[in-house]
Amino acid sequence: MPAANDIRKGQVIKFHGEPHLVMETQHRTPGNLRAFVQVKMRNLRYGKALDQRFTSTEPVEVLTTDRRTLEFSYADRGTYAFMDPETYDQIELSEQTIGDLKNYLAPGGRVDVLFVDGVPLNVDLPSSVELKVTESADGIKGDTASNVQKPATLETGLIVQVPLFIKEGETIKVSTIDGSYMGRA
Length: 185
Known about the structure:
Helix content: under 10%
GO cellular component, one term: cytosol
Number of domains: 3
Organism: Cephaloticoccus primus
Domain Elongation factor P C-terminal: 129-184
Low-confidence stretches: none
Protein name: Elongation factor P
Main location: cytoplasm
């Protein structure tokens, strides 16, 4: 087993029986005290972030990880199906694993999935996605003097504030970070 000195950002370690993603590491040697490693990590099952201090020689279990790009196929009763475009294997993830990311999943959309020991634990979206507008009120003519916006419902059910010129059926680009309108696709 590697020592705490060997922990690097991006690795997944086992801490208290749970997988944790290492977000930051700092090696410190304060004065005449023993050296230690300060690690900022996030629990991959629950999303909780924490800081932990390890002695520099403490053994730490590093888990094997695999990151794959998958294509979203469909959602059915709280289960989300993804397909590996290289092997055509189908992988199903629970609604608990997906969380609020479901608002940005359109059929054919690609996501990065982190597998830890063969089990999918974390889903990463691209910084923006293209979604189709399914419902939007018509803009009022002459109401263009300022940056006036209106709500628009997208194909995933997400409601976004868009400019008045956006109409039903158009495809727009939406930020996955804050859910804001970025422009036409």
